[in-house]
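#struct-queue
[09:14] JT: dropping the first one here, sequence first, then the structure tokens:
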Amino acid sequence: MKEQEILSLINGRLGISDLNDLQKSVLKNLKISSSAIIYSPTGSGKTLAFSVTLLKALKYFDTEKLQAVIIAPSRELVIQISEVIRPIAPDYKVTSLYGGHNVADEKNSLQNVPSIIVGTPGRLLDHANRGNIDLTNVRQLILDEFDKCLELGFEEEMRKLLKKMPNLSRKILTSATILNEIPEFVNLREYVTLDFLESAENPSERTTVWQVKSEEKDKLAALRTLLYSIPQGKTIIFANYRDAVSRIYQNLKDNQISAGIYHGALEQMDREKAIAMFNNESYPILVSTDLGSRGLDIKEVKNIIHYHLPISQESYTHRNGRTARVDKTGDVYILTHQDEQLPDFVTIDDTFNLPEKCEQKSIVNRNNTLYFKAGKKEKISKADIVGFIANNSQIAPNEIGVINVYDHYSLVAVPKQKAKTAVSQLLKAKIKGKKIRIEIASAEVRISRPNNKK
């Protein structure tokens, strides 16, 4: 694809009229055959940067061949990357492969060979071993968040995958931390290093770090008081363990504080719902393990609360990186008991004194999310949903918020006060000739595997 064509699509379909400095630098410094390591912080726009340079190297006459593979460490990041690439690559098939996804759907989608595959290491290797995909002629490989892939133990899967790609002419690695050494299996010989970690605008300059002291070792009461006391805005509460996240979430819920929950033991659909409903303001608070600190598209977070002290400087940096994005400011609150010692890597700007008496109040959501039991595989589009809601309920098109369409279900943000009535009205109507299950989505979750850390 030609660069000007790609930039025009980015403007028209993603609404981005001007690339940021990182994206411009990647375009300027990477030739079509260049391999590279791109060091960039979370939220820097590197997905769009490597997507543009990847698309520039695609061949129009090879639209029925697998030309490029993007490997990412999490299903959420796979989805995020795919949602960036698809609108700006209309002439190419882009397929997503990841754990928790319906395997039969994935196999069917591979019957017509995609030009680009975005996938997690384990699921990609599984399809390759089953013969569902042939990686032999792949020319471009992007290892996104390579440091995270190694951290999560995907080295062996990546090693096996690269052995199945003998004809690579280009490899691009991205990382949010400096790599002390590149594993031999990557076979990266000649490459360009683009380091945006130091030159990137430092979000810590727009962040105020507060220490909040809890009189009790159990910090739940202090946490609630803090939530009642700080300025309203999207808030993420980080804890170190899944059990703790579940306990915090349940306590907030019991005290009429609207919140969502996110950790690695949740089923895929519940993880997708958690991020979608947090982004669309169906709840103002998300309780998460460090799994939620990177690799997710979470917008405009005002407050970060460390319920547990972070276990490392890297963890601390990534948690805080969820706020103060681009030109925004943010606040970081670190809850501590007198027996806890602050790590050396934490610098406090000020102390936030909790009031002795604090009015307990409900912290509620402004929107509700409607759950539609139909999605892409049922040929449902965002436009279908807007028309259906507008024509069959009292919700006007301009009142409909963010719409997320997944393979077999969709989520739609609507005004809270109109949600219940809308459901009863919509259940009487048909969308594309069919009646489907519609209900108000909740933050209730299911556990898909035994609890452990993340």
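[09:21] JT: and here's the second one, same format:
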Amino acid sequence: MKNVFVFLVIFGSFTALSQENKVTFGVKAGLNYGDNGKIEGTDIIDLSAEDRVGYHLGVFLRGKLADNVYLKPELQYTVNNSTYTLAGVDLDYNIKKLDLPILLGISVLGPIHVFGGPALQYIVENDLENVRLGDVKNEFTVGLQFGAGIQLERFNLDLRYERGLSKNRAESGEGIRVDSRPNQLILSIGVDL
């Protein structure tokens, strides 16, 4: 719970900047395509997931730092789904998390911009079908996101790549370990309010 509080304090600190009218507030939603890592175990040799589609919903702040430079923290609820086939049986692996990307962006040509930065993640729930998993080793992890987008009036469309930086495993009593790091493409649409 302490980590959720840290998320809210970081995100909330950016709202103080909005008093100067240099900050835009908005909502966003989109799709995630990728996997949650690999299954490992005594009888398993690095079983990779079949890619699946997930989704995210959230809010963002975009603060103008200079003419073409901005800082954009986001707070979003993300659901990632992957399927593993183990001994002819499909196992669905679902992760629900809070994400806080803190992105630095640059407008490069008209409405086109590029961005990147760290993505803080708090894993709320992880579940591997028919396997009792323990909690992930670290509920709070760090990843990296980078991508490009287009800003048209109040609407923003972006495509980004996210990768978890450090291994973060959940284990079962049967010796099965699942690496919960995200490795995904994220397509988002946002609206400035």
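[09:30] RK: nice, looked through the second one.
[09:31] RK: The CA atoms of residues 109 and 150 lie 10 Å apart.
[09:31] JT: good to know. The longest helix spans residues 2-15.
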